[in-house]
Amino acid sequence: MEAQDQPNSDQIAFWNGDAGQRWVDDQEAMDATLAPFDEAAMEALGVPKGGEVIDLGCGCGGTTLELARRTGPMGRVLGIDISTPMLGRARERASAASLGHTLFVNTDASTYRFEAQAFDCAFSRFGVMFFDRPAAAFANIRKALRPGGRLGFACWRALAENEWVTLARDVALRHVAPLEPARPGAPGPFAFAEPAHVASVLGRAGFTGITLRPVDHAMRHAGEVAEIAATMARMGPASRLIADAPENVRGRIVEDLAEAIAPRHDGKAIDLAAAAWIVTANA
Ligand SMILES: C[S@@+](CC[C@H](N)C(=O)[O-])C[C@H]1O[C@@H](n2cnc3c(N)ncnc32)[C@H](O)[C@@H]1O
Asked: Which of 79, 94, 251, 278 has the fewest CB atoms inside 10 Å of its own CB, making it the most exposed?
């Protein structure tokens, strides 16, 4: 197979490059910031004690470890990801936490040959919006679930509702030209912003009983103002704008970002609005 024919090749390059390394470097802060969303998705999914669970796009493994705590040692959790650096961190953490009933596989969840009908549920925290062919990817995932199995994941609502991106983007746009707008539904963090699109993708993949529940949480960024501004410049879609700018311009963007967030700093942290869907479905 030619490299360009490989599904999701852009995402594989992206998550094995600077973006993956940034997630490793910021893993602790990211886990703390995103925790309210995985908590909501795990509650909606219902993780059975002794259950067998897949963590799709598990990244640095924070949610895989939490799923493993919930299943207990009689269960098992399979973390799947395409990012070598992020999986490296996930494996280190599982070993440090002595959670031997976790297994991590470096592979594309859209095409991986899962054991058929072997899992009770599939979970994801913001790891399933990146497939070139989402309906085919979810059909593949569904084959891994037992009859009666459940899918539950968190994905972002519209970009305009997510201040953690728009604030940094708007500051960056004072200094750099905008990127081409992505086509609606294109692989990326906001691919599943439209509920009708999510329902259509999952329906075509064979899932039933599809529900989407809006969940809003302030994303809490702890630390000094300058430190938070630097982290925000590395996060999410705005980071692409900022990372591509010349170094002196990048410096000015981070300074302006610090100025923009300073009035909202409560001495310890700032809160930025974040809006997600908690999606559930039956296999
Ligand atoms: C936004 S990050 C979220 C990581 C992790 N779930 C978390 O919340 O910390 C998206 C993750 O999805 C992974 N990913 C993207 N496309 C994938 C695919 N086709 N198969 C498996 N993982 C994928 C990326 O490598 C990345 O780790």
From this structure: 251
* pLDDT higher than 50, residue 3: no
Where b means 16+ CB within 10 Å and e means fewer, 161-185 reads: bbbbbbbbbebbeebeeeeeeeeeb
Give me the residue spans of the domains in the chain. Answer: 3-282
Is the CB–ligand 1 distance for residue 242 below 6 Å? no
CA of 31, closest atom in ligand 1: 9
* Res. 62: pLDDT tops 90: yes
Structure-token match 């705590």, residue found: 69
Over the stretch 146-184, which tens digit does the pLDDT of each residue have?
999 999 999 999 999 999 999 999 999 999 988 887 888
For ligand 1, is residue 127 a contact (CB within 6 Å)?
A: yes
Q: To 10 degrees, what angle do helices 163-172 and 225-234 make?
A: 90
What is this structure's pTM?
A: 0.94
pLDDT at 4: 52
Say if ligand 1 is within 6 A of residue 140 CB: no
3-282 maps to which CATH number? Answer: 3.40.50.150
> Distance between CA atoms of 64 and 49, rounded to whole angstroms?
14
Q: Are 192 and 138 in contact (CB under 8 A)?
A: no
Q: What pLDDT digit, counting tens, does each position of 226-244 carry?
A: 999 998 888 877 788 888 8
The 10s digit of each residue's pLDDT in 196-215 is 999 999 999 999 999 999 99
